[in-house]
Amino acid sequence: MDEEYDVIVLGTGLKECIISGLLSVDGLKVLHMDKNDYYGGESSSLNLNQLWKRFRGDEKPPESLGASKEYNADMIPKFMMANGSLVRVLIHTNVTKYLNFKAVDNSFVYNQGKIYKVPATDVEALKSPLMGLLEKRRARKFFIYVQDYEDGDPKSHEGLDLNSITARELIAKYGLEDNTIDFIGHALALFNDDKYLDHPAMDFVKRMKLYAESLARFQAGSPYIYPMYGLGELPQGFARLSAVYGGTYMLNKPECKVEFENGKAVGVTSEGETAKCKKGVVCDPSYLPDKVKKVGKVARAICIMNHPIPDTNDSHSAQVILPQKQLNRSSDMYLFCCSYSHNVVPKGKYIAFVCAEAETDNPETELKPGIDLLGPVEEIFYDTYDRYEPTNNHAEDGCYISTSYDATTHFTSTVEDVLEMYTKITGKALDLSVDLSAASAAQEE
């Protein structure tokens, strides 16, 4: 291992694989190592036997659940916004040719004890049972304002400067009720707490526009898409991309130790051999525990069922967002459901996840509001994992550490982290102004 590389990437989680692919496409010489013997790291998809081994030790899964290999249970379940930045990254890098996607059937929000379809346009707002008649009219006006808003067209701004007024002030102009604000902010703009209300309204409006554009993209019941055979396909797609552009992969490398000279990362040692790097090391928090701090914990339940989530129009795939206020929590809870229609379980089976930022030490009790919406469950696994953020100065030590995955069941925060790391390493922003029509070929009807 005497070769010198531009960058060494440790861990094959989704974030690390995307970075590896992007840097390889840019012409950098990348070495990618992992202590595991499989791709995906924390974001891998497990078959039934792996799921059992991880959560139940030596116990064997019941035969009634079907063949182990037909299961692809995501450890970090998330849907992708059809017009979002992850899809743009996939098209920019041409990883779409390694994957097939299918639209997610529906998107729901929990409100006063019930599940409702998320209205995303002025037309849907008028039909939604979420609001009374007068509120529907107010919401419709607000949706029209958002749909018509164009950065470069002052006529569409109605005299408002979205960079100087807050989301709260913009919403107040339309007199919307608290319940309406709740579903717009959390199920459309996808904020996971209410802090956004006191930030400039621009981000809020852009997120709502992205939701509506994504919804229009495939004319489906939700703005989301999801890969056939689960998210474990994504890291592998980016790994193949990196290899095509000359990236080198080494799995099953024990004790990958980052080497420093004068405080700067200069290489990685494994099994007595050291690989050198010029620009630094990219890794997940587990590889440099002394350069990260714990910032929270995610609680989740993985549920195997033989029916869709009740009250979701028999959706084979769906997201349900439970806004924080509805549950007296300080952040949202998420339901993610997929089925055999995306090839992640055998025919007739469904897999659902209930995820939330842990606010107690008892996931069974904490996740109960989400679990109660699922109906009868055949098997359930509870789990918690800690979330970490880097504390180092990358400019000084050449270490680019990803943040841990949060509880959200969409990719907003994941891609923001990846694009930030990319800019730190290369000194430039990734150009994502791609022609999205080209991606329609990647969508499997």
From TrEMBL:
A GO biological-process term: small GTPase-mediated signal transduction
Superkingdom of the source species: Eukaryota
Keyword Transmembrane helix: no
Entries under Pfam families matching the protein: GDI (PF00996)
InterPro entries: FAD/NAD-bd_sf, GDP_dissociation_inhibitor, RabGDI
One Gene Ontology term of the molecular function aspect: GTPase activator activity
Coiled-coil zones: none
Keywords: GTPase activation
GO CC aspect terms: apoplast; cytoplasm
Family note: Belongs to the Rab GDI family.
Record function comment: Regulates the GDP/GTP exchange reaction of most RAB proteins by inhibiting the dissociation of GDP from them, and the subsequent binding of GTP.
PANTHER family: GUANOSINE NUCLEOTIDE DIPHOSPHATE DISSOCIATION INHIBITOR, RAB GDP-DISSOCIATION INHIBITOR
Name of the protein in question: Guanosine nucleotide diphosphate dissociation inhibitor
Source organism of this protein record: Daucus carota subsp. sativus
